Amino acid sequence: MAVMTPEERFQAIVDAESKIEPSDWMPEGYRKTLIRQIAQHAHSEIIGMQPEGNWITRAPSLHRKAILMAKVQDEAGHGLYLYSATETLGVKRDDLQELLHQGKHKYSSIFNYPTLTWADIGTIGWLVDGAAITNQVMLTRCSYGPYSRAMVRICKEESFHQRQGYESLIRLCNGSPEQKAMAQDALNRWWWPSLMMFGPHDTDSTHSEQSMQWKIKRVSNDDLRQQFVDMTVPQAEFLGLTIPDPDLRWNEERGHYDFGEIDWDEFWRVVKGHGPAARDRIEHKIRAWEDGSWVREAAIAHAAKTRSAA
Amino acid sequence: MTYEVPVAPGEKAEIEERIEGAADGWPMWEVFVRAKRGISHVHIGSLHAPDARTALQNARDVYTRRGEGVSVWVVPSSEISAFEPEAAAEYVEANEKVYRLATTYEIPDEVGQM
After folding, report:
1. Which of A64, A181, B62, B83 could bond A59 through an S-S bridge, CB–CB 3.0 to 4.6 Å?
2. Which chain B residues have a beta carbon less than 8 Å from that of A94?
């Protein structure tokens, strides 16, 4: 058997649908792409606690409050699984935190939209978590073992997120006219940002091809977006809500829904950090980190004291 | 894509990975969970904690929020020993001794199940 170079061996493992594990040789670009993607994913989960945490004290019942707290706790857990995955690639969690605080790392733009009414909470579960599931189910098949495993855990929990959101909207849509109008208003505001979550068109997506070859990414942005639209339209119909897109219609020939064009100017504006709540999100994150510093220090001091006493 | 941030035109894709001189936070622990009685503890992930007791509490919150386990172990990551990657490759690929495998031996059908 001819001896393979490390690069050939790496690609052979990837091509065979096996997994790359932390101690394996990997191309530097693969490692860097993963760190970028997983760190941004982790940051998104952590920042994603804010728009929903915003409604915990105002949830309409104790039942909904308990659900929302469990969901926000899950988002923290997801962030931690993902930071752990980045650490297998040789970076430190505290460094990633600091880079996020300094604005050198980004997180998903979707969390820079504000949650204005209670209906936003149900809508986020249904649409934002729905879009995330579409993407994350693909990522369970990612070639990097630790990322793929984190995704399996996350997908199980996301299913709860999406279902509780949709169920909460069923209640609103079967409630008073005001409640139904509130649900429609939330859909109007979250529909397009949710579609934007899948990223630019495939033709404008600069790094997709390499990521596909490395099997970090398995399905293209436009294909995932189409999947999401096809899945979501009947769900909106069931709720009796109208998706805010005059171009949306079933295309018999394609076997898919056709839909309108995303406002790409808004897309890039928000990606570049000009979303409505962008500044608040990072300020809040830094404040929480700084307010908690005494706890971290005290825990270290206590651990040292206990060790020396033993 | 979803939670990955697209690279804006004119922006570079690479991100920084390190902060010079940043303090080390809490040490890292590996977490092992026994999903149910009768099976072994299995590695499930890692976390940071100042000491073993807090590591166990964090492990419960991070990895077993939905009854995923009946028992949890935590081990300081620095205490785990492993083969170097090159040695590991030789170690796991040295599977030439097929005579060690039960399936190497042909037993006539008349003998029945063995």
Report:
1. A64
2. 19, 22-25
Which residue of A87, A200, A206 is in closest CB contact with B28? A87
Distance, in Å, from the CA atom of B55 to the CA atom of B75, rounded to the nearest integer, reads 9
* pLDDT for residue B94: 61
Query: Rounded to an integer, what distance in angstroms lies between the CA atom of residue A142 and that of residue A90?
Result: 19
Tokens 């979707």 correspond to A110
CB-based contact (8 Å) between A306 and chain B? yes
List CB contacts of A267: < 8 A, sequence separation 6 or more: A109, A196, A200
The pLDDT value recorded for residue A199 is 92
User: What's the pTM?
Assistant: 0.92
Residue B91: is its pLDDT beyond 90?
no
B16 touches chain A (CB under 8 A): yes
Q: Is B80 on the interface with A (CB under 8 A)?
A: no
Tell me phi and psi for residue B41, to 5 degrees.
-70, 140
Give every CB contact of residue B41 below 8 A, 6+ residues apart in sequence.
Answer: B32, B33, B34, B71, B72, B73
Continuous segment of H or E residues that includes residue A83:
helix A62-87
